[in-house]
Amino acid sequence: KAKLSSKGEAVCFEPHLEDAYLARLLQEQEFLEALDRNEISVAYQPIADLMTGQVMCVEALARWYHPKRGAISPAIFVETAERGGLIDRLGEAILRRACKDAAQWPDTVQINVNLSPKQLISGRFPALLARVLEETGLPPSRLGIEITENVFIDFADDSIKQLRTISSYGVKIILDDFGTGYSSLSYLMMIEVDGLKIDASFLRQLPDRKVEAIIRTVARLTADLNIYLVAEGIEQPEHLAWLRENGIQFGQGFLLGRPRADPPLDFIDLAANTPA
Ligand code: C2E
Ligand code: MG
Ligand code: MG
Ligand code: MG
């Protein structure tokens, strides 16, 4: 792309674009090496019953500790992996690790794993999932797959078919970051969903009359559909108190527990986190 400067001569932006391109390639290469060297690990964050503090589930979150640059956010490297065609390998590594770990945990605790829509391109994900369950011995009912609505947008028909196959194994399907995209409600009609996670951006806006109405309405919707609701991003004791007062049953957030290698698997002390 070239643009005319104020003096009228063409200014070339190519070198700059090339730098960005090279930086991306470099990062993809680094990520591939990280996968090969097993530098990708999994952290687990508890999802708890907000009334009793019982841990009902943990979410598996990918972690990359770069030897020189330290922790790199999955928000960045998941995209790198998707671009570089490495998302299947990342997804498989996380899924296998998470199922293996969860198979050792009390059977009251479920494990949720995030799925990138790009993992559905090859059509091989359902078979991989069946194999991993078989290998690790984890009962399908203890596994949940967290999807965002991009799954429905990108490669709609075949993705939905694959999700239905997964669902037929007895694995749970959870809609992640609910309420942030477009027309999320219609997706509830397309597949059997077991749970919704209402996005952290709602909680962050409390106290606010409109946001309160939205969260209550989503809670009512999930109750009518007989599926569960998780409030994401609980950081403030006041937010926890509001959720409890309004009967929101499950929650996740730094206040209850940060993602870590050895998550709590029984109870979280909510009294310690309630405003005085
Ligand atoms: P997500 O699936 O919505 O996961 C929740 C994110 O919110 C996590 O960020 C978690 O650490 C963060 N979080 C939890 N509680 C709080 C809180 O109270 N306050 C704040 N500020 N943040 C909180 P993380 O681990 O950085 O992951 C970011 C996103 O990267 C995830 O969002 C998910 O979309 C993606 N991701 C992570 N691991 C994987 C993976 O294994 N596969 C795929 N496809 N995506 C992944
Ligand atoms: Mg998630
Ligand atoms: Mg989420
Ligand atoms: Mg989120």
Describe this structure in words.
Residues 24-273 form the EAL domain. It comes from Tianweitania aestuarii. This is EAL domain-containing protein. Keywords: Membrane, Transmembrane, Transmembrane helix. By secondary structure, the chain is an alpha/beta fold. It has 10 helices and 11 strands. The protein has an 8-stranded mixed beta barrel with strand order 3-4-6-7-8-9-10-11. A two-stranded antiparallel ribbon has the order 1-2. Strand 3 (40-49) and strand 4 (55-66) form a beta hairpin. Helix 1 crosses helix 2 (74-83) and helix 4 (125-136) packs parallel to helix 6 (156-168). The longest helix has 23 residues, at 14-36. The structure holds ligand C2E and magnesium ion (3 copies). The site of ligand C2E has 21 residues, from strand 4, helix 2 and strand 8.
Q: Secondary-structure element sequence? A: EEHEEEHHEHEHHEHEHHEHE
As an assembly, this protein is single chain
Total of DSSP H or I helical runs spanning 4+ residues: 10
- Total strands: the figure is 11
Low-confidence parts lasting 5 or more residues at pLDDT below 50? none
Largest sheet, spatial ordering of strands: 3-4-6-7-8-9-10-11
Cα separation of the termini: 60 Å
Structural class: alpha/beta
Domain EAL: 24-273
Protein name: EAL domain-containing protein
